[in-house]
Structures are given as structure tokens and as C-alpha cells.
Design brief:
Elements lengths: L5 E7 L6 H9 L2 E4 L4 E4 L6 E7 L11 H11 L6 E9 L6 H15 L7 E6 L7 E7 L13 E5 L30 E5 L6 H19 L10 H4 L11 H8 L5 H42 L3 H21 L6 H13 L4 H53 L1
Antiparallel strand pairs: 1-5, 2-3, 4-6, 5-7, 6-7, 8-9
């Protein structure tokens, strides 16, 4: 079944990263870094089944060479904390054959990136483990019409509401400051040359990936870029399982991410069972409410009460099957039946609704417990990691 995954991050020099190493690793190729004189050789890396560079209209043809492209990027980005490239990682639907997976990624890149002036270097990874995905590296500096790199930002005068320049006021004199060579000083602002870094872009790119995949999925189950909460679903989201985490568990080790996801799967299965039971009861309850007045006037009142009681018993079984306790509302109904042999119709309807609310409250508590458990495991893992690092430092000192 297709899943949605679209992760966006920045590869920056400030975090000790290089564009050449990132490109070599994702494409499974060898690239020589001119800046540091290093060779990044990942030709033995497995799982890279396709790789290519897609150019924008005004990009020089020489940038079709991966080594040339990313060395030129590092040459133009001189700051020590420069943002070198953006990476978009997307999960590919397993329903698509290989040629359609490639077609979908190309369509996505053209619509969102190359048509907007970016160069895209992308690779498709598939280790036959049910997790085909694509890594898309994007340039972050616009290109001029002549193919030269343009500026990321442009300085401009700040303007007031009337469109006039805003003077820089000296707080001591209350007058406009005078700079070098007797020039008046004006407020200036830095404007991005493109909108690629706008916060709205992440939402736009994520939605676009879901829309393009859904067009190709046709009658199959669709994917949604929105969170469960935004979709109005009570499901718990799972954490991203890295290849390293799965490898640790496969070797008999422990990963709190894998364990947490197992608990989430169990919770979501129970939630689905309860919601299904609730939906069935509510549908029949609506039908009974429509028939209530006519039935109560006739001789079928006892039959109506019996059907309501049966619904409550079925609801009780649904709740108990998921490991939850019988709710107070159901105990009240059972007590009424023992005392009178029948129950008031309106009371039964109210109690049925109370049962539904109680079941959803149980889900909410389970969710909180699960999230708290996740937080505790994260803290334990962090402490464990710190202890391991301390031990390594002590050994190195000796």
C-alpha cells in the first residue's frame, strides 16, 4: 500500500557538510572535491538503481556533469555557514513499476523545481525491501540568463507607507545620520531573489507530491500530505524508521524507534476496531431513532427496547475485545435491565452515546501514555548515548 513521505532539509557548510559528498553518496558515484582535495567514492554503495541531472532552461550544459556542478556550487558559496543545496526525499508507491516511478519523479521535479530555475540531481534507491524512495538535491542560487550564478539576496531601500525612503535617525541628535563622504544614510532591507525559502513552499511541495502520485494511482488507495490531526483522524503517526535502525533490530539489537512504532501499530489496530464497532452501532441507532415514535405508539415497544439492549451488548463486546474495561454507562444499562426487565428508550440512546464518548476517551488516554512512553525512551536513549561517549573519552585519555 502506498504511503506518504516527503522530507525536506538543507545541506549546509555550517553543519560540516559538503555538496560533493552528498551528491556522491546519493548517486553511488565518485566525485573529487576541488575545495578540500578529497575523493568521495561510493561506487560500491548498493541500492542505487537510477540517477540523473535535470537542468533548468538557462543552465549551462556543463552542469550535466555531477562533479562539475557541485564543485561550482561550493566555489560560489563562500560563507562558512553557506547553504549549499536543498534535499527533498520522497517515498515512491510500491504499486508503480520502475518506469512509472521514474516518470512520476521527473514530472514532480519539472513542475516544482526546474521550471522555477533550479537544477535537480536526483537518484532512485531501492534495496528490494519494500522501501523505494528518491533523493532530490536542488541548487539554491538562481541562474542569470547568461548561465552565471545570480545573487541569493538583493539589498534595497526600506520604504514607508507612502513609498518614500526611511532615513536612519541618530538617537543622540534626532537627525538623519550622515555617512562617509557626507552622504545621508537610509534604512535598507535584504530581499530574497526567489521565494524558494518561503515557509509556504514546504506545504506546496508536499501537497504537489501527493497530488501527482494520486493522479497515477487512479482507482487505488490515495496518499495524503496532511497530518492525521489535520485529516480529522485519531490515528497516531509513526516515527521514521531509518535503515540503520532496522539493521540493528535485524541483528538482534534494540531500537526504541522500532519498538515505539510497534506500539503505535497495535494502538491504531485497536482504534480501527473500536471505530468500526462504534460506526455500526451508530448507524443502527439512527435507524431506531427514526422508528422510535411509531414503535412506541404500537405494540412493539418491548421489541424496540430489546434491539437497543442488543446494540449495547454488541458495543460492550467490541470494547472488551480491544482490552478495555466495561464502561459505567453499560453497567447502568445492565443494572436497569436486572431491576425492571426493560429500559427507557431515551435513556438507552443517551447511554449508548456515553459509551461511544467513553471509548474515545480511552483512546485519548492510550495515546497520551504512548507519547509519554516515547518521551521516556528518548531520554533513556540520550542518557545511554552520553554515557557511551563519556566511556570513549575516558578510554582515549588513557
Amino acid at each position: 500500500m502506498a504511503i506518504f513521505h516527503c522530507q525536506i532539509k538543507i545541506i549546509s557548510r555550517g553543519k560540516g557538510k559538503t555538496a560533493t559528498a552528498a551528491a556522491a553518496y546519493r548517486s553511488g558515484t565518485k566525485i573529487v572535491d576541488d575545495e578540500f582535495g578529497e575523493t568521495h567514492d561510493y561506487t560500491r554503495k548498493g541500492g542505487v538503481v537510477f540517477s540523473e541531472i535535470l537542468l533548468c532552461v538557462n543552465a549551462p550544459s556543463k552542469y550535466s556533469d555531477r562533479q562539475t556542478l557541485w564543485n561550482e556550487v561550493q566555489k560560489i558559496e563562500k560563507q562558512k555557514n553557506a547553504q549549499l543545496c536543498r534535499e527533498v526525499e520522497v517515498a515512491l508507491p510500491i504499486e508503480f513499476p520502475r518506469d512509472e516511478q521514474i516518470e512520476v519523479v521527473r514530472e514532480y521535479i519539472k513542475k516544482n523545481f526546474t521550471d522555477k530555475g533550479m537544477i535537480a540531481d536526483w537518484s532512485l534507491h531501492d534495496k528490494s525491501d519494500g522501501n523505494p524512495h528518491a533523493h532530490i538535491l536542488l541548487t539554491m542560487r538562481p541562474l542569470k540568463q547568461n548561465g552565471e550564478w545570480g545573487a541569493k539576496r538583493k539589498d534595497s531601500y526600506a520604504l514607508d507607507d507612502n513609498g518614500n525612503r526611511i532615513p536612519v535617525i541618530d538617537p543622540k541628535t534626532g537627525k538623519q545620520k550622515i555617512g562617509a563622504r557626507g552622504r545621508k544614510m537610509w534604512e535598507r532591507i535584504s530581499i530574497q531573489s526567489t521565494d524558494w525559502n518561503d515557509q509556504t513552499k514546504a506545504e506546496e511541495w508536499r501537497k504537489s507530491w501527493a497530488d501527482i502520485c494520486n493522479e497515477h494511482l487512479k482507482g487505488q488507495a490515495h496518499i495524503d500530505h496532511r497530518s492525521y490531526a489535520r485529516q480529522g483522524k485519531e490515528q497516531l503517526p509513526m516515527l521514521h524508521e531509518s535503515y540503520a535502525a532496522r539493521k540493528i533490530v535485524k541483528r538482534g539489537g534494540y531500537s526504541y524507534i522500532i519498538e515505539y512504532n510497534e506500539q503505535v501499530r497495535k494502538f491504531n489496530r485497536e482504534r480501527e476496531l473500536i471505530d468500526k464497532g462504534i460506526a455500526e452501532v451508530q448507524n443502527e441507532l439512527k435507524q431506531l431513532e427514526q422508528e422510535k415514535d411509531d414503535i412506541q405508539k404500537g405494540q412493539k415497544k418491548n421489541e424496540f427496547n430489546r434491539r437497543i439492549a442488543d446494540l449495547l451488548e454488541r458495543r460492550s463486546r467490541t470494547v472488551n475485545q480491544s482490552g478495555e474495561r466495561v464502561t459505567n454507562g453499560e453497567r447502568t444499562v445492565q443494572a436497569d435491565k436486572q431491576q425492571t426487565g426493560t429500559t427507557d428508550t431515551d435513556a438507552l440512546i443517551r447511554q449508548t452515546k456515553a459509551v461511544n464518548d467513553s471509548a474515545r476517551a480511552e483512546l485519548a488516554n492510550t495515546r497520551l501514555d504512548s507519547e509519554q512512553s516515547k518521551s521516556e525512551r528518548t531520554n533513556i536513549a540520550d542518557k545511554s548515548g552520553k554515557q557511551t561517549n563519556e566511556e570513549k573519552r575516558r578510554r582515549n585519555r588513557h
